[in-house]
User: Fold this.
Amino acid sequence: MIDNLLKRLAALVSVKSIVTLILTIVFAILTVSGKVNQDFMTIYAVIIAFYFGIQSAKSSDGE
Assistant:
């Protein structure tokens, strides 16, 4: 159980996770302030889709 938690914590510290988290925070701030534009939304959607696509592929390969 603790070993699994440590693996997840280590994965969270990866570069793509950090970029995704920062981008999500920026997206939330821009959305709340009403300053988000279409270009940023497109880039955000592509990055999030890529990140979760990679995560999904890793999960299906491991099972």
About this structure: Residues 38-62 form the longest helix (25 residues). The mean pLDDT is 83.
